[in-house]
Design brief:
single chain, Rossmann fold, globular, binds adenosine-5'-triphosphate, binds magnesium ion
């Protein structure tokens, strides 16, 4: 098994993507927590999935496992960027961005400080509703994780994680 194929009990790996069945919000948080063990300072996590798929829920698990205050993790839909102090290894902050309302306006991305947070050395940046306009802003040496959550029914989700590289 290569390092890309590390899996948790309920995960499986298909063509480099890891798949998890999540029957509950708590399980989705656990998947976020397992991601926390693998991300490093400077990494970017792009989260795709419909409204209420569970993107914020997964980030809550990630923040908690990185030693941050997960009680604070809410949808940043209206404030666009929320930052959670963490203390695990070299990761001192998780920046949580939601671009749902941003459209394609580059000026807005700049205004919320995206450029700064993406270049921070000791941070992980998790982005909900990533846009194509984001691509040139991501430092070329950043490791990018892609998470896609598909809603199957009220409680059941398919979570696919594509590790960097
Ligand atoms: N298996 C599951 N995984 C994640 N969330 C679930 C699951 N089952 C039910 N839920 C519920 O679905 C909702 C997911 O909300 P969340 O804010 O995480 O979604 P989101 O993808 O961030 O949505 P948005 O695009 O609006 O920001 C929560 O109310 C959560 O309790
Ligand atoms: Mg959300």
């Amino acid at each position: 098994m290569t390092s890309d194929e590390v899996r948790t009990a309920s995960g499986s790996t298909i063509a480099g993507s890891e798949r998890f069945d999540s029957p509950s919000a708590g399980t989705t948080e656990s998947v976020g927590a397992s991601l926390a063990a693998r991300v490093a300072a400077g990494d970017v996590v792009l989260l795709e999935g419909d409204l209420a798929a569970g993107k914020t829920t997964l980030v809550r698990g990630l923040v908690r496992a990185l030693g941050g205050d997960d009680a604070e993790v809410a949808s940043p839909t209206f404030v666009l960027l929320l930052s959670y102090p963490c203390h695990l290894g070299e990761i001192l902050t998780v920046h949580h961005v939601d671009l749902y309302r941003i459209g394609e306006r580059l000026a807005d991305l700049r205004e919320i400080g995206l450029e700064e947070v993406l270049s921070e050395e000791h941070a992980v940046v998790a982005v909900e509703w990533p846009k194509d306009t984001l691509t040139p802003w991501i430092p070329s040496d950043a490791r990018v994780w892609r998470v896609t959550i598909t809603t199957r029914d009220n409680e059941s989700r398919l979570i696919e994680i594509t590790p960097p590289g």
